[in-house]
Amino acid sequence: MSIQTVVTTPFADQKPGTSGLRKKVRVFQQDHYLQNFVQSIFDTLEIPANAVLTVGGDGRFYNKEAIQVIIKMAAANGFVKVLVGQHGILSTPAASNIIRKYQTFGGIILSASHNPAGPDDDFGIKYNTSNGGPAPEKITDAIFAKSKTISQYKIVDLPAVDLSSVGVTTLDGFEIEVIDAVRDYADLMEQMFDFAAIKRWLAAGHRLQFDAMHAVTGPYAKEIFGHRLGASADCLMNCEVSENFGGGHPDPNLTYAADLVEIAYGAHAPDFAAASDGDGDRNMILGHHFFVTPSDSLALIAANAKLIPAYAKGLSGVARSMPTSGAVDRVAAKLGIDCYETPTGWKFFGNLMDAGRVTLCGEESFGTGSDHVREKDGLWAVLCWLNLLAATGESVESLVRKHWQIYGRNVYSRHDYEGVPTEQANAVIAHIKAQFNSLPGQVFGHYTVKTVDDFSYTDPVDGAVSTGQGLRILFACGSRVVIRLSGTGTEGATIRVYLEAFTEDAAQQQMDAQEALAALITVSNQISQLPQLTGRQQPTVIT
Ligand code: G16
Q1: Of which family is this protein a member (predicted)?
Q2: Top-level class of domain 3-179
Q3: What architecture (CATH level 2) is domain 184-407?
Q4: What would you report as the CA-atom Rg of the chain, rounded to the nearest whole angstrom?
C-alpha cells in the first residue's frame, strides 16, 4: 500500500459542538472537508503500534462513502486494523461497547444523531477514546486547533471494502474486519437484564410498541425485542434503516415521534411504548396514555435500580446535566449516594464513570445511560423500563405517580425555539446577561429572583474547567429557568428554555406540566424578552 500525501488548506468551521462535528451533507461533500477533519483527529492522537480503530455509523446518507475514506486514512496513519460494523452500521452505544469489549484504541462514529438525513440534510462525525466515550473537551479543542492549520493529509489507495458481509480482509498487513453490528450489544443487554422476567411479562399479554424511526436501532430492536424476548413483529415499527430515515426527523419526543404518540394515546394503546433516535442513544418512554419526562425516567430508574440484575448491588452515584431536573438528586439523597451536576454533553460523564463515582447518568435531552458503556443508550433505557414493569407488575403511570408521592414532583418542561437567526439568539443571551447585577431580589408575581449565573463546571476528577454552560435564573421558591443555545444544530441557532418547579402538593402533581408552569413561562419571557427579540410567540418544540 503506498501512502499518498495530499496537499490541502484549512476550513475555518470545523469546531466540534456538543457532540462532534455536525454539518450539512453538502458541507462534508466539499473536496477535502471530511479528510481534513479525520486527519486533524489522527494528528491530535498519539497512535501507538498495533492500534485498532472502531468505525461505524447510524446508516444515514453519506455514511458508507465516509467509512471508505476513513478506512483508507486509518491505514495511512498507522492503524493496523479497523473494526467496522456490517453495512457500515453501529449504533452509538454499540460502537462504545465494541471499543471497550475489543479494547480498540478509539473509534470514529458517523452520526448527526436525531437530525434529519439525506443529501440536503445533516451528517456528523465524532471521535471516541479508548474508554468508549466521546472525546473530552481538551481533545476536541485540540482537533479544532489542528483543523485550522492543516496543510496535508495521508491516505492510501485501496479498493472499496465490501461492507455487506462479515469477514476479514488483509491488504499489505492492514486488516479490515467487518463485524456483526448487533450481536455483541445484544449479548451485553442479555447479561444485564432479566430477560426471562420480561419474556413472562410479554407472554402474559402485556403489549409493547417500539418505534425505531427508520433509523439505526431497527436491527437491534428486531434481535433483542423480537428474537430474544419474543415480542411479535407488529410490536416493532419503522425498523428498516433507510438512508434518509424515511424522510422523517428521528428525534424521539412528543413532536417528532408523533405516530408512536398517537398509538400510545389511542383507543388500543399498549402498556408500554418507546422510541429511539437516529443513532440509538436517545429514548422516549411512554405508558398507556402517559408520557415520562427524561428527568423523571432517570430518577425512577435510580430509585428502583436494585430490581435490575446489573444494579442489584446498588449504585455508586448518579449524575445529571445541569438543565436536567433535580428529580434524581432527591433519589440520591435518600439512597445516600453522590449526585453530580455537569454541563450538557455526555462527554462530561466519562471521567465520573471511569473513576467509579457514578453508575447512572442522564440528561433532559432524552438521554439516559450507565457505566456499561460510555454513551447514553436508548435501548438500554427501554430495557430498564421493561425490567421494572416485569419486576413490579405495575403500570408505567402508577410507577411514576408512586414515585412522585414519595419524592415529590419536579414539574419540568423544555421549550425549543429552532432556526432562530444567530444575532437574535445572541441578543436574548446578552439581554439576560446585562441584567445579572440587577435581577437578584427582583419580584415577578409569586417569583423572587434569588441568583443568576452562567453555569461553569470543574471536573472533580481531572480539574478541567468548562465555562459558559448556560444561564441559570434561580428563584427563592426553588423553581428555576435555564436558557442556553444548543450546540448540536446545523441551521441558525436553537434557543433552549428549561423550566422547572418542585411540588409536594398532590393536586399539583396531577396537573399538566404546561399548565403548572404557565406562570413561570410568563416570568421567563419577561426576563429574557425572547418573544420581542426573536418575533417568536411559541416554541417550535415542547418536551
Ligand atoms: C447530544 C449530546 C447530549 C446533549 C444533546 C443536546 O446528544 O450527546 O449530551 O444533551 O446533544 O445538546 P444541545 O442542547 O447542545 O443541542 P445527541 O443525541 O444529539 O448526540
Answers
A1: Belongs to the phosphohexose mutase family.
A2: alpha beta
A3: 3-Layer(aba) Sandwich (3.40)
A4: 23
